Amino acid sequence: MSMPAPDCCHRPHDVLTGFDAARALARAMVWPTARHEIVPLAAATGRILARPVVAAHALPPFDQAAMDGYAIRLGDGGGPPAALPLCGTTEAGDPPARLAPGTAHGVMTGGALPEGADTVVMIEATRRIGGRILFEPGLTPGSHIRRAGEDVPVGAMLAHPGDRLGWAQIGLLAALGIGAVCVAAPIRIAVLTTGSELRPAGSTLSGGTIHDSNGPMLAALLGSPGTEIELVTVPDDRAAIAANLASAARVCDLVVTTAGMSVGGRDHVRDAVADSGGTLDMVKVAMKPGKPMALGRIGAAIFVGLPGNPQAVACGALAFLRPMIDVLEGRPPAAPLFAAAAFAQDARADRRTALVPVRLSHRQGRLIAEQAGPEGSHRLAPLAAADAVAVVPPLATLMSGALVEVLPFDAPGTSGGYGR
Questions:
Q1: What's the whole-model pTM score?
Q2: Which residue of 40, 100, 319, 393 lies most exposed, with the fewest beta carbons within 10 A?
Q3: What parts of the chain have a pLDDT lower than 50?
Q4: Which CATH class is domain 337-408?
């Protein structure tokens, strides 16, 4: 009797992959996209730089007055003057003037320093009597001058490929006259939430139906100025799932599903991946929550199959999808973040890595992680009370105060922060 052919999406890969090995596999499956685009600086906040930006001129571009006051020359010796005649004033935006010998010249903050001046005396240290300026004693040569290039010299590297442009970088580039930058094109992500019971938020539920939380949650968790996310809800129908997978894979970099990853009678995602021409490299991860999780490819697109329970979805997105998107955007790997656990776990016989929602805070110079609520992959309230998940190794006893890796909800370089 002939044996049945192996199922490409079940038995050959139906083994439990360790958490660290799965993370390494996820990173190895992706590389930066080659798509770049030029965007106006005003639209570049949060985007990932694709090409270096170099200063074409100095900042400040010329010697400037740092205070409202009077420009004089002290470098000729003879001691500071008691009084000098006022000969002209330079406003901010005026071309540089020439300081006549033995005179004072009015200047405004940010205005060009007159040629020949070596000191600015702030207006509070002077008195004006008629056309003459009286100076207080104790003047210091070189005071209150911003030298050309003291902030940024010509040729300085302002930003590197892979940098996420924040408000401070936008301000710096604008000050140097840079009106547009080359950034990574948006990463295209399709999120397919599967389940015949799902209804959109805001709709009226009938018996047995629930509101879809995974789709909106993933769109918010993965969304950024550098991503384009399409949400689709698909019923528990193998053909419908396969058709949507194939359609998404033709135009997206990353195709993500939720639910349907187990082997129950209505779990069709594995078979649908095969039907759409895809392959799976992994279908189970030794993590809790989130064991039924897959990595693979459908055409040129990366496929990530997440479980259906929302806490498991969030943990999978933080541990796998966020780092994969960083690579696609050309970002360097984020350095691991560690916090002192303010909770304990007894010796665990479980060989799965536990991901625990935690609240981060700073105490006496240390980052502290407190458990945010009871365990349960179906629970959303602990996630809403948390700002990170702690990564607890398998077969470990976690003592209070021990360091654990944490995966923050607000990624480094965003407007959020670690801790409240």
A1: 0.86
A2: 40
A3: 1-12, 413-420
A4: mainly beta
